[in-house]
Amino acid sequence: KQEVTQIPAALSVPEGENLVLNCSFTDSAIYNLQWFRQDPGKGLTSLLLIQSSQREQTSGRLNASLDKSSGRSTLYIAASQPGDSATYLCAVRLEGSNYQLIWGAGTKLIIKP
Amino acid sequence: GAVVSQHPSWVICKSGTSVKIECRSLDFQATTMFWYRQFPKQSLMLMATSNEGSKATYEQGVEKDKFLINHASLTLSTLTVTSAHPEDSSFYICSALGDRAFSGGYTFGSGTRLTVV
Predict the structure, then answer these.
(1) Which residues contact A70 (CB under 8 A, 6 or more apart)?
(2) pLDDT by residue (tens digit) across B23-70?
(3) Residue B25 CA to chain centroid, in angstroms?
(4) B93 touches chain A (CB under 8 A)
(5) A20 in helix, strand or coil?
């Protein structure tokens, strides 16, 4: 059974720092992995989608990497800003699944001005 | 880009009444719709998966007679919470999977905060 774990559960850093969020999964047979952002009481915004054949994806100050063999993904945020404060969720889609996503519990990020 | 409109964004209802939540895909055809529930400080819990024109598949522990899902068209799916009770108070989010034009990604609604009093 696929399990997705995100560490740390919460993170608070000063503005301007670079930071890394971690996501691990137990079954390497994934179709893709996505990183999402959720603001309090709101829906989700897709940040980056990495297909199983890819190693990383970049969008602006965000860079996500994927290592299927070790069951790990990282989300790197450069030059953090207070507006980056949110909960970050990773989710994997399994190969051959009915398109279901398996979710991590999220990392709550606070960027202090 | 793909957009899913979810309404209402919040609703307060009395115990015993029913509440309908709608999700519409505005610029693509949602062949599959996922309904999630999220309790405070927890991640999303999948409730059910629905494909247009067929019955929804419910996750273990989710009462299909209480959470009625209708996916009658490729652009509209609804979740009706019947005979709501305070323990049904939660944040409900829909997610649509569209055609290949959107690279297999998922588009989420903005969520509905349900409070049952």
Answers:
(1) none
(2) 999 888 888 899 999 988 788 899 999 988 788 999 999 999 999 999
(3) 12
(4) yes
(5) strand
Number of H helices, E strands in chain A: 0, 11
Mutate to test the interface with B, among A30, A42, A47, A50 (most CBs of B within 10 A): A42
- Three-state DSSP string of A71-102: CEEEEEECCCCHHHCEEEEEEEEECCCCCCEE
Nearest alpha-carbon partner for A31 in A106, A97, A105:
A97
Looking up tokens 């959107």 gives B102
* Optimal mutation site among A90, A100, A108, interface B, most CBs of chain B within 10 A: A100
Q: CA of B109 to nearest chain A CA: how many angstroms apart?
A: 6
Which of these, B88, B48, B97, lies nearest to B68 by C-alpha position? B48
Q: The tokens of B58 are what?
A: 């419910």
Structural contact between residues A8 and A75, judged by C-beta atoms closer than 8 angstroms: no
pLDDT in tens, A40-57: 877 888 899 999 999 999
